[in-house]
Fold each of these.
Amino acid sequence: MKTIKLGFVGSGFIAKFLTTAMIQVRNCELSAIYKRNGAEELASYAKENGLGDPKLFDSVKELCNHVDAVAIFSPNFTRLAIMEEIADAVKEGAELTGVICEKPLGRTVAEARQMVELARGAELKTAFFENQLHMNVINNALDQLRPQQKVMGDFHLARSTEEHAGPHSAWFWDPVRQGGGVLSDMGCHSIAACRHILTPEGKGPSFLQPVAVQAETSLLKWGQPKYRKQLKDTYGVDYEETPAEDFSTGIITFKNPETGQLVKGQFTDSWMYDKQGLRVAMDGLGPGYALEVNTLISPLEIFIGDEAAEGVADAEKALEKSTASRGLLAVHPNEADLYGYAAEIRDMVQAFSKGEDAKLTFEYGLEITWMVQAAYMAAEQKKTLDLTDDIVKNEIEKYKSLIAQGKGADLLYS
Ligand SMILES: NC(=O)c1ccc[n+]([C@@H]2O[C@H](COP(=O)([O-])OP(=O)(O)OC[C@H]3O[C@@H](n4cnc5c(N)ncnc54)[C@H](O)[C@@H]3O)[C@@H](O)[C@H]2O)c1
């Protein structure tokens, strides 16, 4: 099998995590990195771990001439401009096979649609990185339950949550640059995971049709004066003027187009989960069978007493978004695998080396953006939206949430 040479645009948190995951994947190397913050360190890390000797490039276009696929791992507000440069590079002769983009594909449906058009216009294969659909804990559970599902019927309900104490970069907190708050940031995972759990065996990721959505967006912790000040001092974002939601929950109803059966996905996401660190929790309930996932339950625990804690400089070593560095701590032996990063890269490498799209395409990423934006609209309008109604669909197409416009104060403080 051909080795896929990857070029990364973005060398921050997710780029480092995915590079760690690459250590567990064959037939790929990190060959180029766009020169921004963290690029040198990431290049050294890749080299030390036998993933190649990445060259640093000052321009995205130049990077495109040295790789088979480009991965967009930069902040949400940079997506389109980078995709445009990639498409231009192809027009000018860069021999790229594919393009990868981290979630979310766009801050609005219009942006995500443009991403699809630019990628397809350049005849590129696509991989949308939604890691949770590649999580072995979910997929192994689904495999185990397929015989019961066949006899008893499909899942009725899936519940999916992703929560931590808040993001690590200023741009994430800024609703304008990020495209919203926690619903845009992590609701996209939870909505995708619900739909995945509910999808009958053998059907593709776009099989279930979203037919209705209800949702809430709230500001529970980071709008309080003490925490607003903390945000302003640490990240320079002003939640009095331009807040984003730190809590979101909702229900999407999906229809099986073959049987007409309606099933529900309930998502809950927050940036105020002041426990050990990131928790992804899900369950799926079918007739007579169920699955449950809680990523905070690890087979590995460590204990650090007060005296020894003074020596721990980096709490995040224990677990993504760790909040504590002492006491009884959950530690994951292999987080990159747990969250599905290794499996999503493996899927992309196998697909691109055959000249095919990955399992999750940009078109799929657009569908998830569409559902996330529909949820924002439902929360803003405080009603359940009929997603089969052409008027509603048309509105979602052009929609940009008040929160993403920086006008969320009335909604979130009322
Ligand atoms: N799948 C997941 O669970 C997951 C987790 C975290 C982040 N993400 C996604 O990954 C993306 C990046 O997030 P992150 O946490 O790594 O952010 P980050 O802030 O840690 O890193 C961003 C990187 O992009 C670079 N950058 C900034 N502006 C740029 C520009 N204009 N052009 C090119 N590069 C630029 C920065 O220098 C930095 O290297 C986001 O879209 C986010 O939603 C996904």
Note: Residues 9-15, 34, 36-38, 73-76, 78, 102-103, 131, 169 surround nicotinamide-adenine-dinucleotide (CB under 6 Å).
Amino acid sequence: MATKKKAGDSAAAAAAESPAPPAPKKRAAPRKKAAPKPQLKTGYVALVGRPNSGKSTLLNALIGQKVAIVSDKPQTTRISILGIKTTDKGQTVFVDNPGIHKPLHTLNKRMMNFVYSALETSDVVCLLVDATEKFGHGDEYVLEALRRVKTPVFLLINKVDIVRKDKVLPIIDRYKDLFPFKEIVPISALKGVNLDLLERLITEALPEAPKLYSDDEISDQSEKFLFAEIVREKILKYVTEELPFVTAVYIESIEKKEQADWKTPGETRPVTYIRASIFVEKDNHRKIVIGRHGSLVKQVGIEARQEIAEYIGHKVFLDLQVRVRERWRDSEDVLDLIEGQKG
Ligand SMILES: Nc1nc2c(ncn2[C@@H]2O[C@H](COP(=O)(O)OP(=O)(O)OP(=O)(O)O)[C@@H](O)[C@H]2O)c(=O)[nH]1
Ligand SMILES: [Mg+2]
């Protein structure tokens, strides 16, 4: 972390040097007024929208590294995650949220509570819509949720990389009559289209305020939560139908050990042992996640282990157990356990 230099340090240092000869009495030259220091622009920016609209992809693109997991299955994000971007202009704290949907289980009610609290506490709200999807009831439901927002709302029309240009204008026309958006920006979170422009507009709309986090912080999630999410992302790649919704991951333990390095006798190297439980709701879910002769869970383990090892920079052992927790989506205890991993 950079140390803060106190104002006047250099003046004090100069004054401490040997005494100057008596100065001839001259009229002081008129002093130039110091230019006022530009104020930092800082605040929270909520990323909201329907499931699968690309909020987590956008968060990762804006931060420049993977902070949140991404999948082509809806309702991937279950807990809000911060992505903090510090520049010489200030600090933008992006809040990635679960997709807005009608909640049926306690899990989904909690997911929606994250969204509502982000809408209430953010300085700017970015509503992402998927340019490839037709406008429907789900979108009306989202706009309804935005009616109570008092801060500026940007409309981001995402995935413009895969729609014809003439499809974007009608989307803009429809939305601008439905809500008083402060800005409307067509983007591609995946290909980075218009993200510089978006960041400029967001910075302009943020209040003048000092930074909220230290310069080296990029997220608010613990390693434990990140590892659980990485495992879940790999599962989401391979499962379909109700499986994405009924799967949760809990990291039971993380243990770092020093082990003898057989390549260089007398030396040791770090190895991290991770034990994780994959919760599903029924025994037939468990069989699917384990796969034929354990093939699915094995593949998930290989991919998750590689990504975690790359992240921590040394060897990882990952032990995955698939367990049935009936109706865990309505169990406050299991939900507390999973949420509690975030730290
Ligand atoms: N072609 C294209 N695909 C995108 C773009 N942004 C996101 N996607 C894809 O859309 C899917 C959903 O992306 P996510 O970032 O997980 O969407 P989300 O809004 O966070 O979804 P939830 O967490 O479920 O609410 C993934 O398959 C992404 O690769 C984009 O700009 N262009
Ligand atoms: Mg997401």
Note: The chain has two domains: 41-205, 223-342.
Amino acid sequence: MNEESPFCAEELRDHWSFPPGLSYLNHGSFGPSPREVLQCRAQWLHQMEQNPMRFYTRTLAPALEQVQEALGRMLGCHGRDVALMENTTAGVNAVVRSLPLEPGDRVVTTDQTYGAVLRLLQQECRRQGAELVVVPVPLPLDDPEQILQAVLQAVDERTRLVLVDHVSSAAALVFPVEEICRRLQDHPTRVFIDGAHGLAMRPVNLDTLGCDYYAATCHKWLSAPFTCGLLWVAPQHQGQVQPAVLSWGHTFPGNIRGWVDEFHWRGTYDPSPALSIPQAIRFLQSVGWERFRRHGHELARMARAELCRLPGVEPLYPDCEDCFGTMVTVRIPPGDALALQHRLGRKHRVEVIVPNWTSDRFLRVSCHLYNTEEDIARLVAALREELG
Ligand SMILES: Cc1ncc(COP(=O)(O)O)c(C=O)c1O
């Protein structure tokens, strides 16, 4: 617990604008922002609308620099190495589409990789004649060491890129990214960590992690407004990464601040979500990072234990912090995933995601500061009724 936190547990939900009776357990897909963050965004929008010339030509560039610095402090890196993006998808696209691959080169990833990212890797490998190796992650998993071994075994001298999740999407599985980077540090392959769920859920220090690229979405666990994310690129690769959308970039009049200019002037856009990132960081910091992570993890543990008491529901990994953080997935009996997800939302007013990434059916529960034991109890009761 953060001794100095001004927030008491019962009041935390009041920082969000949920209607009464809704149990929102899907922060992992779409993470709503606390009021303080939305107010900050509204102030930026107000400035923008009051005098767009002043805002876009004089205010924006230094304000974005402050956002980079705030993210740099949070992630243990230089702000100048962080480009502000709309989301993880944009960051992954920029890197993968700029990567020079030759026929016979290998790209290694896992079957847990987010579907849209996998699709990009497939397309880019096909276009450049490279081989995509998709390593199966054994589930149920006994030990995260199994992920490490599976990935390392697939890496050979032709491997140019290893792309793994920090926390996987459907299975909510924490990957041993520190160990993967450490074991590959003397290998010429580049390592890309998809940190869409890692940002805020896990502590990150990019200066010591040892990866080449880290992309993340700020509108998930960090709770910044929708449509903002980041791409960190190790200094030696920055000259090579081009945004997927080319605009004025470096040629835009004003201060040249380096490789990020290509990303930060991407045509006229609404930068108010990105400008509110420091407020989102301040909010979680004032609650306490540890308190936030502990609260979410304890509720996720409870959800896992309670759900696994229902007939036919099974865990995917052991009850340990190395395997899952503030989000957990269990296997549930087969059936129509989308129909169940809609019924839980519409009829029971419990919003969760029912991923369906193999022929099996799963249920993923995300727990943020506003969630309580009551939300978990409602989810369990609703699922019990639905599974009969
Ligand atoms: C692991 C992972 N990567 C990438 C993404 C894409 O994130 P975004 O839609 O914010 O680009 C997601 C979204 O859930 C994800 O879970």
Note: The mean pLDDT is 95.
